[in-house]
Write a structure and sequence with these properties.
Structural class: mainly beta
Shape: globular
Largest sheet: 5 strands, mixed
Strand content: over 45%
Distance between the termini: 32 Å
Helix content: under 10%
Strand order of the largest sheet: 1-31-28-34-35
Amino acid sequence: MTGRFIRAAAAVALLALAACTSDSNFPDPTGKGTVRAFNAIKGSPSVLFKIEERTIETLSYKGSSAGARWDDFQYNFNFDTLIFGESAVRRIASVPLKVDATRDYTFVLTGELTSPTVTIWEADERTFDSADTVFEARFGHLSPVLGDVDVYFAADGTAPVLGEEIGSLGFGDVLAPIDIEAGDYVLTLTAADDPADVLYQSSIVSYAPRASVFLVAFEGDETDLAPTVVRRTNALGGVASLPDIRFPPTVRFIHASIDLPASDIYDDEMLTSLVLANHAFGDVSAPFEIVVGGNNFTYTAVGNNTATQFEGSVLAAAGTRNHFAVHGEDMAQVQLSYIPTLRSVSTVAQLQVIHLAVAHETLDFYVVDAGMPLGDESSQAQVLTYSFPSSVISLEAGSYDVYATVRGETTIVDGPLQIDVALGDVVEIIIFDTVDPTSAELRVTPAP
């Protein structure tokens, strides 16, 4: 099979190679302005944000670039992306802009990937004195499904009251910069003119003085449990996700130790709160709600909570989907806690493999067109290391056979397992042990 799939890392590398620098002859500048960008196209692959042909930043969905200062000249600001299956990056937007000294420009990419809308938010650059105790905040709205909102920003425990909002926002809007005393705040978004209809609420977040901060609402993607996620971005490009605190995290339990008997799972010290009963080898549970922060789990013999078989923990943030896998040999089981790859990318199907077969330290993993033999003309193998998730494999829509083989050989450990994928699909495969230590079993993780 040729040209049908590549690893995501290779796609990013191709984007990077496409970023070249060209020199221009400009007069002497009189000052500099600041430029950054946000990518608010849900389902988009990575997008290159460029000044002329020089890359400023690579932007994933909900991603932003650091504020970069450029001389006060006229430029073309370009947005490029790699459409999977195409041999070169594609220019999806180009916007001319005269940068003025001491001005701040934020490019916002919304709409459809192949014909995006580019909006520019403008303001004056903010400078602070060393004695200032305030920070500058700008509130933006980039979720096309959220509707018009009122913005409340107050101390914890302060209920939204009509008339006390910072301002109101529609999709694509940003409020004028506002100075706020440094401290701890909760951001709340409500339906316009209805403070009782809370659409989003952050946890308590600390804001330091003398900082310029964007707080921008995005539509949640498949990784998020909440419909709205806010990203906090500072002038240096530091980004923090502020999930909706009203949506607790979840966990799925994966039993991947062939030596561990079926277990009951408890989440309290007294072993009275039974989370999951009779969790047997090979099982992948439905999602269970857990608390924000640390979660401790005790595995006991089925029906006998005095016989502890395994103990582990998960540290979870609000609104996140977590996987908790127990794997390893008898009396030496360990846990693998991870957030699975779930975000859909509209231009490609994605596949990730979790190798949990302890009998095989390393394996080779192959993807070939369905019905084609595994041989010398097959695709390049990805090396899998026990207990580590693979890099993401990108696929065109279609049917494929996947194989695990002995490392460095085409001796089949398991396969073919056929998978059928459409653009936007995300598939996870877990490799389990079998009673035969020379083999293993490939299983597609069921949808939650």
